[in-house]
Amino acid sequence: MSKRYELNDNQEQLLKANTVRIEPIFNGLTSKIIGTGVIYKTTNNGNVHYVLTALHCVYGERNGATYKNEKDIKEVEIFWQNENGVYDRHVIEKDKIIPIHDHDLAILLISYNSENLREIIIGDINHSGYFDSFGYPRFKENSPYDLTFKRKVSQKNTSTFDVECLSSISDEDSNNKIAGYSGAGLFYANRSVLVGLITQITDLSGFASAIIAKKIDYKLLNEKISAFDSSLEPVKHINHTLKISLNEVDGSIINYEKIIINDCELNIWRAIQRLKNDLKDDWFQDPINFKFLLSKKFFYKRIHNIIGKNITYKPSSLAKHFTVPKSGYSTRPAIETSFIDRIIYQAYVDKLAENLDKILHPHVYSFRYNSGKGNQSYMYHYSIEQWKKYVYQTKSVLTKDRPFLVVADITNFFENINTKLLLKYLKSLIHDNAADDLKEELYKIVDGVGELIKQWNDKQINSEFGIPQNRDASSYLANLFLNKIDRIMIYSNNHKNYYRYMDDVRIVCKTKAEAIKAIYDLSIAMRDLGLNLNSAKTTIFDFNDLSDNITIKEFLPESLIEIDQINSLLRTKSKRDVQKAIHMTFRLFTDVIENKYLDEDKFLNKRKLGFCINKLQLFSRTEGLKNTIDFSKVIEYVLKELDNQPWLTTSFIKLLMSIDKQYFKTEDFDVIKKIIKNNLKNIYESQTYYLWLFLSYIKHSDDDLIQIAILNIKSTNQLNQANTAGSYIYLASINWRNYKYVMLSAFNKGNLSDNYFLQRNALIALRKISPDEINEKVILADLAELHMNLYNEGKEEFVSDLPKLKISQILKDVPTLISL
Question: Are residues 508 and 590 in the same domain?
């Protein structure tokens, strides 16, 4: 059987450099044993490396836990073929053999200095793909030979797995079986990850049939190595092959879980996985879902010059600041940075979170660090679950005997965080709570965070205030910043029934005087951090007062019966119940927008509406469900509310993009056109951007909109950058060939220089244009490979479809029951 893929140069060099022939020498015996071994290269043992092989290749034929010639072993000769085809020889004394009898494994200590040795890593066997191997089989007269194997379906075994050979071997060679190849390593295809050693053939008919390989248990190896000599270096392990890659310069392993920047070990792999989830609700969603921008290899290329050095990372492109609408027509600041910046920022805060989350008080429910299942991708515990706990705990202490509820909110919290005070407080937390051997590293991480924020806020009027909003990493820092207030309120001021969810505070008191004192204490504590209470949102309610009791439900809402019923039906996983849940969701949506709940609090209606929008968007993306609803009424409502509720634009547009295009009428797009053309309405940058993306996705061609887009691109006054970014995507989607020179001319002139956000969108719009026509000198370093990657992909896609869903994914989206 021929190979299914090509062995790359790096892997071929690794196999040749690290594979050896093993020939044990016995006292008084002339019998000859030939086997294969793999050299595990260490980094700090004075050139003492480990040869990993099957123990029967060293001690002779195995019988249970005993080996035929173990008592007669004198030494072991090691041979490997150098680049000139000549065999180098090395002798290992018998006292340098670490046997693992029960597992038929051996570790031979070899003192050897060679620049040709490659770094490898031990991995878990977790897929049924291909394996590379290199050995000294008898059928090749014990000369080096590479073979390809594939894992076979077999019963689960804790220590072995079955493989079959895929390389072409003649019947005559096959009859030589595995002789000489025993002990050869199995590496994941074209990766430096060793997962097993070949130890046994189980089919008498020939070599290419069933072969047993021993799994490499790194814990077992390290236990035996440490027991032999505790000064020896443990072997390194990885549980996912994508967490590493090879350095293209020297072939060394790059472990993305342990990237050293400014003497700080950062888990870049985890940061990227978490960032992928964080980006899903970005205020400025990437048109093609951030393709090629979260590549670990590009990350490494981009910052390789500071890896392993005592150099602080500094952003290479300016951050761009925007405004996004929030409920009530006010605005909040938003910031767009490069993705390299965001990966570093996430990795910094990940490191702080795993060491400092323990200091947050149990009465703080927001953004609690997830150290359990799924933490590689999800930084926090499920937010809905945490909010429920926050509400439940507050309600549980609010009684007739303890009837006063303080509701407090911080004025413009994120934008008013004093960054100098934040950094100083983080260092004080590290000083008081971190392990001594971690303090210096964590101090440097705080300095790194400070450098990022300083550069991002540069040229802002209040450059010492504010951290990026709508970022998981920022939410954690903000949570820590308020820890001082939590401690003061609970311990110094003895407000035992104090609870917080980010900048929302609830305090339950016995008397009104105590409640007034709580507000006073809270305002004083906040003042020390440069924060202020929002007087319009800070008040006291009396549980025993009928009118107050009704209002309290807005702040401590009950579970909504309709929503609970829908979620319960979805949890059953029954097709009939799921269909029923869909129709109940649509009916609830209809009732809310037709004001059938006028007697209810506005807050409850908002919750119902938000729930329905989310669920309808998920249903419409799911095969087997999307055709069960008439979305005409949904479209009509959403288009009308773009004016009235601009803060919901992100959710609205995602819902519209999930609906089958057949539901839309030409006049539907006139609503969007009127917003874009009207300068009194076209004021929210995030809304404008999403409107352009939707028109691009639908490919709605309109002469007026085309002219507006052309003028936006030609303009050198980029006041509304989101408008320009959306215009690039729109023209490309309508007909990139017709508007190629408009877009290309503006880009090549450098109109977008030093603007990561605009360049990112423009390069997507220019993806079909030959790289030869692009002025690469104006492209930012953080986007250096984006256009070439998009061009080579060959797709004419400027706005991606929302990912299609399976019914099982809908069920996963259902929040679990509260667990206290």
Answer: no
Q: Are residues 647 and 616 in the same domain?
A: yes
- For residue 133, list its beta bridge partners: 147
Q: Any idea what the Cα angle at residue 565 is, between residues 561 and 568, rounded to 5°?
A: 135
Residue 302 lies in a domain: no
Domain enclosing residue 475, as ranges = 341-556
Q: Do 93 and 151 belong together in one domain? A: yes
Same-domain check for residues 507 and 581 = no
- pLDDT digits over 206-225, tens only? 444 568 888 999 999 999 99
For 179-192, the pLDDT digits (tens) are 678 899 998 887 88
Share of the chain above pLDDT 70, in %: 92
Tell me the sheet residues that pair with 221.
none
Q: What sign has the CA pseudo-torsion 616, 618, 621, 625?
A: negative
Q: Is 438 in the same domain as 477?
A: yes
C-alpha count within 13 angstroms, C-beta hemisphere, residue 767: 27
Same domain, 183 and 66: yes
Question: Is residue 215 within 8 Å of 161, Cβ to Cβ?
Answer: yes
Q: Give pTM, 2 decimals.
A: 0.88
Tell me the pLDDT tens digit for each residue of 257-314. Answer: 999 999 999 999 999 999 998 998 889 989 998 888 888 888 999 999 999 888 999 9
Select from 238, 253, 287 the last residue of a domain.
238
Q: How far apart are CA 45 and CA 96, in angstroms?
A: 14
For the beta carbon of residue 366, count every other beta carbon within 10 angstroms: 21
Residue 312 falls inside a structural domain = no
Q: How confident is the model at residue 718 (pLDDT cuts 50, 70, 90)?
A: low
Task: Return d(Cα 302, Cα 764) in angstroms, integer.
Answer: 20
Q: Which residues of 526-544 are buried (b: 16+ CB within 10 A; e: fewer)?
A: beebebebeeeebbbbebe
* Structural domain ending residue among the three candidates 556, 577, 607: 556
Model confidence at 412: pLDDT above 60:
yes
In order of 69, 609, 710, 722, 737, the CA distances from 700 in angstroms are 80, 28, 16, 19, 16
User: In 140-177, which positions are buried (b, 16+ CB within 10 angstroms) versus exposed (e)?
Assistant: eebebbbbbbbbeeeeeeeebbbbebbeebeeebeebb
Query: Does residue 356 sit in the same domain as residue 476?
Result: yes
